[in-house]
Amino acid sequence: MTAPTTKPPAKLKAGMLAWLRGVGGLIGFALLLEIVPRIGLVSPNYLPPFSVIMVALAKELMTANFWRAFGDTMQAWALGLVISIVAGAVIGIVIGGSNLLRTMTHSTIEFLRPIPSVALIPLAVLLFGTQLESTLILVVYASFWQVLIQVLYGVQDVDPVARETARSYGLGTWAQIRYVIWPTMLPYLMTGVRLAAAVALILAITSEIAIDTEGLGREISQTESGGAVTIMYAYVIVTGIIGVVVNVGARALERRVLSWHPSIRLDSAEVAR
Amino acid sequence: MNRASTPMLEVKGLRKVYEGASRTVEAIRDVSFSVAQGELVCIVGPSGAGKTTLLKCIAGLLAPTAGSVVLEGHAVTGPPPAMAVVFQEYGRSLFPWMTVHDNVTLPLKRKKMSAERREELVRDALAAVDLRNVESAYPWQLSGGMQQRVAIARAVAYEPHVLLMDEPFAAVDAQTRADLEDLIRVLWRKLGVTVLFVTHDIDESVYLGQRVLIMSHAPTVIMEDVTIDLPGERTQLETRSLPRFGELRKHIYSQIQIAKQGRKPAGT
Fold first, then answer.
1. Which DSSP category does B72 fall into?
2. In terms of residue numbers, what domain contains A248?
3. In contact, B92 and A262? CB cutoff 8 Å
4. ipTM score of the complex?
5. Residue A187: is it exposed, middle or buried by C-beta count within 10 angstroms (0-12/13-18/19+)?
6. Which of chain B's residues have a Cβ under 8 Å away from the Cβ of A262?
7. Is residue B183 part of a domain?
8. Which of B1, B2, B13, B5 is nearest to B70 (CA)?
9. What are the tens digits of pLDDT across the range A194-209?
């Protein structure tokens, strides 16, 4: 019964407990959604009981229509996210690496960044109608800044001693980017990716609702206008589940890529001692 | 051993002035000295003596305002391939995202050599600093002393003709420090490398060096070039208790006290 042997199970138990509490909260929320329409607080016509929604969802999952819409949304999300990450990382490294470029672009970036992506809907419709490109414009515009701003901070964070070490060993510009700047920036980039992944999903759905491009968002607006409220809620719940999965995935990726970083390595370092 | 016709390293009339927006700071006024091939020279001075500035100028990391640094007959204008630097801040100088093996290997990628030769150099360098079975560990999993050994191994694997060390042991505990000092003496004799060792520790400079250059307070000049006439075989216990060790230490200590008061040798 010494400290080292009891500590890991205690920690495991704490993690398990937190997880159980989270599940408990979800069950409580589902119960609330079940009871509120049933006791007549809200008309079941506008908010059907939870169990009814879940039955409708199970039925939708059997249709090809659902999976086509799901595929369209995920395609727009993934494409938009990849474009934002690549563009944000490359442009961030170029701008962040030069004092001149950084000071020249700072005010422009601060001007463009707060413009809401939805303000670009008229432009997107004008250019591409209800094509995938319209959704991509909104998704990329919203998530690009999330990545760029983080990368700009990350490039600034390079340790002067690390930089001088690299220089003293004759590493050229490319080698410095690859072996010093990129790894220093990676934690920032991963934060940007996590934020961008969530924002990209929101904008993909928004665009499908507002512009009527193919995807889950369009199913939501069409079922709503067709009076199929139950199915509409089923689709809303699906978007929520995708959001959770995206966030969990982004965090898992972060832990994997940044195993060396102080924010993640603490536990493993203690074990090694 | 240390008698070569042309010096390995020559610093001539080096001056460094930092030009700021509001004021200019003269860090180094006029420093000249030369180091013969295979010599171990220590530079000692009070804090604020511009030691790090001088070392960065020699390493080609900082351009001097006037004067020149000549390595093996060639003027230094950028970091030369025949030079390696060991920094004080090993925790920041080693890359935490790379294993020990990759940290030591990275500088060798610049040099044209076969993969086998590279692996051999890395293996030999880690063995030379008494590090075994840590190749796949990350630097932050090691103790401070072991991390500085990794940094030294990285420098050794690079096969430099001149090894520059900037207060490398200032951040480790006394016991580890003594071990690392002995390691430097062993490596220096085994590899025949020329070593320029910057420190603020008078005892360390006397124990390690064949010569000690005493720096003045900034703006820096060299106060004195002291030859350390101690036996070549040095051990922490015996060398440090020699009467001559005490004399040299006392002499350098008094010179540093003068330097701290801001006095400079006549004629500068």
1. T
2. 71-272
3. no
4. 0.88
5. buried
6. 96, 140
7. yes
8. B13
9. 999 999 999 999 999 9
